[in-house]
Predict the 3D structure of the following.
Amino acid sequence: MLTLSLNNEPHTLPEPMSLSQAMEHWGLCNAMAAAAINGEFVPRSQYTTVTLHDGDTIDIVKPVGGG
Amino acid sequence: MSVQSHATSTDTPFVLYGETLSSRFILGTALYPSPQSMRDSIAAANTSMVTLSLRRQNPNTPSSVSQDSSQQDGDTFWQYIRDSGCRLLPNTAGCKTPREAINLAEMSREIFNTDWLKLEVVGDDYNLQPCPFGLVEAAAELVKRGFKVLPYTTDDLVLGQKLLDVGCEVLMPWGAPIGTGQGLMNRYNLRTLRERLPDIPLIVDAGLGAPSQAAEAMEMGYDGILLNTAVAKANDPIGMAHAFAKAIEAGREAYLSGLIHKSQTASPSTPTLGQPFWHQT
């Protein structure tokens, strides 16, 4: 069991997995999402190769209005 | 009959980073009462570039992040933005360090597929004043990474020069703090920027509340206007977008036509020669 922070909320994952698998687990797989782990941008091309660790902080964002 | 002035017919194109924009009005996409209002305001503004941002996406509720009602339906919001055909200018609003801004910029580039970036690095929560040191540091790194950086900056001349030194080709000084509607708070500094940097595109960004303020900035020789709140929070955003568009055009035409110099003493416009009832004393 992994405990980590997703968008500043505590979340758990049942087992170690890739960012791609985690995003699917959380229902956040879509073309208009971008991700960062521990404050560092992760390109989409690396989603399947990056593995999440216990205590990681993940940010997943989407477009919103801005000024 | 439609009459086009000599001034506007000979105007130079509005060029940023080698790209010509058809409008000098850049509009934000936040705070509107509805997505439809945002869409119609973009059309009324006749803008060719809109700003937008990125915010966290909640698990399993991908459309529920936004706090203002205009984006409660995220899909509709994005669809309207795409349908507008406008160039996208993602921002790094809310970032307080160069690291945050750089990483958000990379996320924006991936999602929006553009190198263009409105760079914001906040230095103080009270007035959301840009941090000069963080802004220059972030701009330098982002330029190295291939971004076309449009920095949201103060009206400080030396800061503007430092941003140009690290590779920015456009400056966007504030008129006043974001969302205040106070207009051009420091005309001396804004005029100084214009006079010292005559060949650099300058865009007044933020703090405007009335079309007359936008017109004044354009009369000073500013190249464009970026705003959001003054339109989105107006009683009639669509009408206000149109009003700003006209004011920006009027200000530009006035600048090109050449304003007269101010004078302390009166000077009659009606000829004095032949004044009736006048007798030499």
